[in-house]
Design goal:
GO terms for molecular function: carbohydrate derivative binding; isomerase activity. The chain is built from 7 helices and 5 strands, in the order ααβαββαβαβαα. By secondary structure, the protein is α/β, with parallel strands linked by helices. α1 crosses α6.
Length: 185
């Protein structure tokens, strides 16, 4: 197959994945973002990159959003929201973060393939994304892509869709957001 044919198939997989996400779960997450004092995002590996991009867009909207583990990240408090992106929902460092957030009394949201996971059991809001786990030998979900690529791509697009929904609810536009874009580049 040609590269463009692979690209077409990846886009088809993403379209199929997007059709399986429940709007009710997404709306709960948007409302929790609106109601939170500060937002913290976390993920490991490529999922972490997707979470960082989400935090960046929230900052552009004027939301206090932080990436867990960065040197300028403040402490999590009771009225805050921790959003974790984790395909497995079992990554040990992320499980520890969720447990700590729960002990503080902060809200926890997880975006995952496995709602029944350890992090899923700790979460107040669960958004289930379809996809294959990194080890696809035990998965019935089929993708041409390696490891967790489909989940990670769907995670990025889902986070971008949340941003658009938030913009709609808060009557924000791109021009307003651009005013908060980095200017020391």
């Amino acid at each position: 197959m040609q590269t463009t044919q692979y690209l077409t198939e990846i886009i088809r997989e993403l379209q199929h994945a997007s059709e399986q996400i429940q709007d009710e779960q997404a709306e709960l997450l948007v409302n929790d973002i609106i109601g939170a004092n500060k937002i913290f995002v976390a993920g490991a590996g490529r999922s972490g990159f997707m979470a960082k991009s989400f935090a960046m867009r929230m900052m552009h909207m004027g939301i206090q959003a932080f990436v867990v583990g960065e040197t300028v990240t403040p402490s999590l408090e009771k009225d805050d929201l921790l959003i974790i992106g984790s395909g497995s929902g079992e990554t040990k460092t992320l499980v520890s973060m969720a447990e700590k957030a729960a002990s503080i009394g902060a809200k926890i949201a997880v975006v995952t393939i496995h709602p029944e996971s350890t992090i899923g059991k700790l979460a107040d809001v669960i958004v289930a994304l379809p996809g294959a786990p990194k080890d696809q030998t035990t998965s019935s979900y089929q993708t041409i892509q390696p490891m967790g690529s489909l989940f990670e791509q769907t995670l990025l697009l889902f986070f971008d869709a949340l941003i658009v929904r938030f913009m709609e609810k808060k009557e924000l536009d791109t021009q307003t957001m651009y005013g908060k874009h980095a200017n020391l580049e």
